[in-house]
Each structure stands twice: as structure tokens, then as C-alpha cells.
Amino acid sequence: MTTVQPHDATANNGRQAELNAARLLLDRMGISPADLLAASRSRAVVPTFGQYVPRVRQAVGEGTRRVYGSYWNRIVERWPDRRLDEISATDIRQLMEQTKANVVARRNDRGSRSAAEHLISALRCLYRHAEDDGLIDPGDNPARKVPKPRRLPSTRQAVPDERLAEIHHAAATTGDDPALDTLLLRLHVETACRRLALRPQDLDPDQCLIFLREKAGTVRWQPVSPTLMTHLHQHAAERHAARPEQLLRYASGRPITRRRYDHLWTRLGNQLPFVAAQQISTHWLRHTTLTWVERNFGFAVAHAYAGHTDGGGDGSSTSTYVRANVQEVAAALAALTGEPHPLARTAGR
């Protein structure tokens, strides 16, 4: 005869009470145990990385594919036949360390933080789609459990006036297309824009505005000087840029690509040692212009000049009411270039 120990009896009673409570709850919800079994059987089969990554590639924009594409390739190479629900946070940490160890070191490398950050972002993008597709529960998402490396402060800064003049001179006197390169530099200095795809229909010559389409789908009309507007029109006419095609083109008529920027800064680095030593790039021009605007016209105008849309950046409700408008941006541009602008305010400063 088997004797039931007191603590076993207590455990059995507790288990039975939990089952009774669960049945009562299901009855009130109108759900039967058979319904739960059917739902479990009908849940989608979780795909492998080799199956799912191509689907996500087709569902994201070109910018996302460009940033995350190489990292998705690495993920598929590492786990081609493993399902998304078979990966743990430890697996991701191991891949992150391997990625950091294999990064080609550059002069501006800071512990391969950027590669590790982009890998985690690429995985989080994949798993966000998996959550939306009902393949992964948010609580089971391993990419959420691995923090990104803390981002260090940027080393970019404003380029001093004399150094900026040297950059313009080198661009205008070297290379296979000085006209294109000097146009690119002036465009980025005047507008503080990022790399862009400008079209002929994005020019408003009457108001001296260009239409910028930037990251995260943001768009804005940005003032430019009459001189720059004239050169943009001449460039489009001479290099046969037609609507709705890209405006900026090589002498052959082919549209430029990101490689033109890389080629430009590599050449400038060969001509000017400080460019190579500091790894100066187009984004430094954005820092240069926005720093000047902030010092001379205040934070609100610099915020609008940059095309930022976060409400003001200082975390206060006041920033909602002190946003600068395009006329104030045009006034800052007029002071920067020394040319009058049709939208610039002449009073109030």
C-alpha cells in the first residue's frame, strides 16, 4: 500500500485548484480545451533565417537594405537553416563579438562599435517583422534582450573657414570633373543637407527653393542662393537631366551615385593631409553650416535649417512655440552666402 505524504497531498490539492480555476475561466470566456489545441496546431511554422531574410529584404526600403544588407548576409551565413525561434540572446552576443573581431580596422574605428550596433539593429528589424507576422511573441524576441553598444560622442565638428577654403580650392583644381565636385560642395554647404537624390522638378527658381527628400521619409523645401539655383539649372541643361530623372550627373550624362562622394573625399584626402587624418566627409559640411547658423541666428533657426522634426530637441514644451519658419532660414542663408534671398526677412533682426 502506497502512503501519500502530507506535502504531496498539499501539492496535489494545489494543482487541482489551479486546474479548476483555469476551467472556470475558460468556461466564462467561451473557450474549450479543444479550441486551444486547434489554435496551437494552426500557428504558423517559424521559418529559417535563410527563408525569412529574403522576404524582409523585399518589405523594406532601399535605405534600410543598404544599411542592413551586409549584416543580413552575415546572419544567413551563420544560421542558414536555423529557425528564428531557435536563436538565444547568447547566440546573438557570440555573433556580435565575432563581427567586431572581423571588422577591417580604419583610422576612425572606435572598437568596432558601429558594426556591433548595426548588427543588433539588423536583427531587431528582422524580429520586428517576425512579431508583426505572428511568428514570434515579443517576450520571446532574443534581439530585444541584447543591448546595443553605447554610442560614443561624434568626432565630427565644424571645419574652420581657412580649411574649408582649402577644400573648395582642391576640389576646383583637381580631379576629372571639378564643375561637378564644386557644385556638390556648395550644395551641401548652403543647405546642410545629407547625401541626396535631386530631380529637375525639385527646383523652384522663383522662390530659390529646392525640395529635399531625406532619411526616414522626411521632406522639406530648403532655401538656396540665386547663384546656386542658376548653376543647378545650367548643370541640368548641359548634362541632359530630364524629369523625373536625377539632376546631378557625370559629364557623360550618367547620374552620379554614392561612389562620387567617396571618390571626391578620397581625392581631397590625397591633396590635403588634414582631410585624410580627420576623416572629413560630407557630413562635416553639415556640422559646419549648422554650427554657424546656431551661433549667429540661434537654436530654433539652426533646428529648422537642419530639417529636424523632433519638436525642438531641448525636451521643453516651449520648443513647440518657437519653431523657425522658412523665411527665417532664408535670412540665415542670405547672411551665410552674402546674397539676397527672395524669402528672407529684412526686419526683426
UniProtKB/TrEMBL annotation:
Residues 136-156 are annotated as: Disordered. The keyword Cell inner membrane does not apply. Gene3D superfamilies: 1.10.150.130, Intergrase catalytic core. SUPFAM superfamilies: DNA breaking-rejoining enzymes (SSF56349). InterPro entries: CB, DNA_brk_join_enz, Integrase-like_cat_sf, Integrase_catalytic, Integrase_recombinase_N, Tyrosine_recombinase_XerCD. Residues 47-131 form the Core-binding (CB) domain. PROSITE patterns: CB. Keywords: DNA recombination, DNA-binding. The keyword DNA-binding applies. Pfam families: Phage_integrase. It comes from the Bacteria. Belongs to the 'phage' integrase family. This is Core-binding (CB) domain-containing protein. It comes from Pseudonocardia zijingensis. The lineage of its organism: Bacteria, Bacillati, Actinomycetota, Actinomycetes, Pseudonocardiales.
